[in-house]
Amino acid sequence: MMEGKMKNVFKAFMVSALFFNAFSANAYVPVADTLLGQAIDKVLLVAGKSSIEKVKQYRAVNDPKGVARVKRIIKNIETFSGKSLRYQNPTIRIIEGVKNEPNAYSLGPAIYISEETLSILDNGELTAVLAHEIAHSEYGHLLARLVYIVGSPTIHLRDLAFSDIFYLTTGQADEYMERIIKDGHLTLVSEIIENSSVRQELQADCLAANWLEKARKKGWKLSPLDLNRATNKIMGIDLGNIDDDTLPPVIRYRAIVSGKHIGSNCSL
Q1: Within the chain, what is the greatest distance between any pair of CA atoms?
Q2: At a CB cut-off of 8 Å and minimum separation 6, what does 45 contact?
Q3: Are the C-beta atoms of residues 112 and 193 closer than 8 Å to each other?
Q4: Mean pLDDT lowest among 19-33, 98-112, 115-129, 210-224
Q5: Given phi > 0 = left and psi -120 to 50 = alpha, else beta, which region is 145?
Q6: pTM (two decimals)
Q7: Which helix (H) or strand (E) holds 43?
Q8: I need a labelling partner for 219 at 20 to 30 A (CA). Which of 3, 9, 38, 265 fits?
């Protein structure tokens, strides 16, 4: 009885922390941000085990060499950043992804990278992408994205964060995924992952560019321009040839080319 009460108190505390944080001035509480990342990672992990077509992109790929490559790069990022990263040993998830849509994203304690992303990027480009994703974690952007999602129902996040691990261990992934698709949890997960402001992306680019510049000065074959090379490969176009300076990818591309991030404290 007491154990059950304590569990409920803990749940209430964590959800309260999450929402207090989302509407605070900084929109950032490390514990709540980590909790949210773990919750979303859990949902995507189940999604990958499901046979439902809509979520097959999250299916995990057994790629020890790819995981080792990513981990080496993350260690290098910590070395040339000159600081201790929030997540020094994040969980690396290599996923199938969507064909012709290479992608990578950080959930804080977990980083997701599609097979295609690993295959098309060289080490400099992959370092730039991972530096950008880790920068999102350093600024607590995952949790801050909740502020940009109008009307995110509390009940979804509560159920998302504390849904049973049972479905992960019994093979009933389809049943679980059907429920969270019906209840709207999957939509919320997608929105949190995909919806971010230009400000967040520029901030992440800024921090990553400064790390890459530090590495360049130490003699490593890295450069802030690797961010643009990676973006061009991922998007399949040369953003430098696009004249519309109102497009977010073009805004980011030109900020990197201008070098204005270098030496900045990235408080955009």
Answers
A1: 66
A2: 58, 60, 93, 168
A3: no
A4: 19-33
A5: alpha
A6: 0.82
A7: helix 30-49
A8: 265
